[in-house]
Amino acid sequence: MEAQEEKEAQVAAWLKKIFGDHPIPQYEVNPRTTEILHHLAERNSVRDRDVYLVIEDLKQKASEYESEGISRKQSCICLWKGPKLTIVFRT
Predict the structure, then answer these.
(1) Where does residue 69 fall: left (phi above 0), alpha (psi -120 to 50 degrees), or beta otherwise?
(2) The model's pTM
(3) Would you list the domain boundaries of the chain?
């Protein structure tokens, strides 16, 4: 039962992070809902990490382009298409 309580605590912390200052909607705390929300929290964490890596990579590339004198203004559009993030650059 200790693992279940740990998952419930992780879900509560994740929901608090997601909702911030807004109240967390009420939900029935049982093994099924806890498992579903825990799975969502894990997937959300992975997606956040992936997006962070993409952003850091883009910052690094922009810095490299600027240092090479290749800098030119571009606009960037980020699109979520299914489970993938698509970044489109327009010049």
Answers:
(1) left
(2) 0.64
(3) 2-90
